[in-house]
């Protein structure tokens, strides 16, 4: 309509205006040509015209409106238009054509299936990626690949054909990586520990490389998991222990480089658990020994007991025990004293673990250097008996009115704790060496003053210990005495003829009736019988008190929180509101019941301790009576009415307890049965 109106009005326009209009039309034609037909370009180039792909093509290619007059029409032929559109970038292809397909079921139980399909030629812009991994899988794969790359790179630097500097740097780098628990986990999961130490098999020929290898072993031993050692790795560890610390016997880079390596190892060891490591004494032997002492048969496997003996590891540990024991008599400084006690205790813990149920290791240690371990252990036990009186912790068992322990912690307590731990480790090793072993019992009993020290551990030493530690040391001492006298007539003779003091908690020390007072030294048999009788009476008293607590147990009371009521033909529970006084009363009753339960548990624990001490003492007295009518007469004199039935009854209860808690047929049960049978015929 606008065009028609424009054409009608154009007839009245002067001719000059028409010419100007014609000129404007010519300019519009020129603009149209510039838009639709640009200059010819190279066929290898493309021009990108930013347009939305979803925009209709008619709108994308629409030209600006032009003014047309009837006298000068503007028309373009189809061929000319096609020729002028050659240089324009075409819009992207339309979206894929989706075809909807409906599958009609052929069976009555089937359903109609509707699917959308797209032809392959219509989805040229799409790429289908199959088997896409999960995010966690990708992360795990990346970690494994990073570990593989690191270990391959570091292993290439450990090979023997590499320069010595490169090998040392690679070992330190690997140890730094192993300080991270995640890397140690990867290293063990892929079984690379043995391969690393196999590559470093020649490290003992170079002092600096051996130091780096010992540091790597120490870092790997910081885990509580298995170290995954094999025989070759353990052999390398033992060889590192045997290295001379003299610089002239090894190949040194120079003093400056060695100090640099030690400083790196010192900083590395500060990042891990290093309670027993002397950071000022970073040497190959020290690091290798700390690594060996951190191992036990439980962590390294049962083969560890056998290989440690065959490779000579037990020799180094026994020598280390002797070195620490020698320092006990010379060290006046408390810090050095604690270090010696800790060193001896850790060595003895390893020896205790490798001698349990292992007769080969027991015999080897008894014979090594004319029973050097037994001699050192006897000396250490005597030193500990003297030290525990000087650094006793008995006052720590005193509690304040609010049942809180005394807060002070000083060096004396620190030393006393080390002495107690060392005593338990010493007796533990001696128990293994003398268990069902006449040779070990005889060799141990031959040590000067050992039987007397063991008697003091039963009767006198517990008074210098905290309350919770007294039962342990007393039972350990009784067990050692039982092993010593069970198969050795010489030891039985020594114990029977020995004089000692009464137990520190015995009635004969002045408590009770004046007629029970015994001053001075008494026979060891009399002291043991007195200990048995007191513990047996204490067990009976605790048992009767527990029975009374059980009899006085409150009966079940009716629920008074509500009552049943019948309303509209139904029975319902209607709760009643309790006054505050009733709630306080109920709370008080609950507290009283909890207090009674705690008292019952305390009585039960005390009863168990008294029964075990009495049973061990009766077993020791029974072993003394074996094959010796004179000893039978001696023991009978101190028993009430000379009757052994009180001892046999206690041993039968103990045997029943062992049958419930231990495997049937063990050597301990056989020994108890033999003693019971012997005492019943006395």
UniProtKB/TrEMBL annotation:
<dbReference type="GO" id="GO:0005634">
    <property type="term" value="C:nucleus"/>
</dbReference>
<dbReference type="InterPro" id="IPR039874">
    <property type="entry name" value="WAPL"/>
</dbReference>
<keyword id="KW-0007">Acetylation</keyword>
<feature type="region of interest" description="Disordered">
    <location>
        <begin position="544"/>
        <end position="593"/>
    </location>
</feature>
<dbReference type="InterPro" id="IPR022771">
    <property type="entry name" value="WAPL_C"/>
</dbReference>
<keyword id="KW-0597">Phosphoprotein</keyword>
<dbReference type="InterPro" id="IPR011989">
    <property type="entry name" value="ARM-like"/>
</dbReference>
<protein>
    <recommendedName>
        <fullName>Wings apart-like protein homolog</fullName>
    </recommendedName>
</protein>
<keyword id="KW-0131">Cell cycle</keyword>
<dbReference type="InterPro" id="IPR016024">
    <property type="entry name" value="ARM-type_fold"/>
</dbReference>
<feature type="compositionally biased region" description="Basic and acidic residues">
    <location>
        <begin position="24"/>
        <end position="33"/>
    </location>
</feature>
<dbReference type="Pfam" id="PF07814">
    <property type="entry name" value="WAPL"/>
</dbReference>
<comment type="subunit">
    <text>Interacts with the cohesin complex throughout the cell cycle; interacts with both chromatin-bound and soluble pools of the complex. Interacts with RAD21; the interaction is direct. Interacts with PDS5A; the interaction is direct, cohesin-dependent and competitive with CDCA5/SORORIN. Interacts (via FGF motifs) with PDS5B; the interaction is direct. Interacts with a SMC1 protein (SMC1A or SMC1B) and SMC3.</text>
</comment>
<keyword id="KW-0498">Mitosis</keyword>
<feature type="compositionally biased region" description="Basic and acidic residues">
    <location>
        <begin position="577"/>
        <end position="588"/>
    </location>
</feature>
<keyword id="KW-0539">Nucleus</keyword>
<feature type="domain" description="WAPL">
    <location>
        <begin position="119"/>
        <end position="661"/>
    </location>
</feature>
<keyword id="KW-0175">Coiled coil</keyword>
<feature type="compositionally biased region" description="Polar residues">
    <location>
        <begin position="564"/>
        <end position="575"/>
    </location>
</feature>
<keyword id="KW-0963">Cytoplasm</keyword>
<comment type="similarity">
    <text>Belongs to the WAPL family.</text>
</comment>
<keyword id="KW-0158">Chromosome</keyword>
<comment type="function">
    <text>Regulator of sister chromatid cohesion in mitosis which negatively regulates cohesin association with chromatin. Involved in both sister chromatid cohesion during interphase and sister-chromatid resolution during early stages of mitosis. Couples DNA replication to sister chromatid cohesion. Cohesion ensures that chromosome partitioning is accurate in both meiotic and mitotic cells and plays an important role in DNA repair.</text>
</comment>
<dbReference type="GO" id="GO:0051301">
    <property type="term" value="P:cell division"/>
</dbReference>
<feature type="region of interest" description="Disordered">
    <location>
        <begin position="1"/>
        <end position="46"/>
    </location>
</feature>
<dbReference type="GO" id="GO:0005694">
    <property type="term" value="C:chromosome"/>
</dbReference>
<keyword id="KW-0132">Cell division</keyword>
<dbReference type="InterPro" id="IPR012502">
    <property type="entry name" value="WAPL_dom"/>
</dbReference>
<dbReference type="GO" id="GO:0005737">
    <property type="term" value="C:cytoplasm"/>
</dbReference>
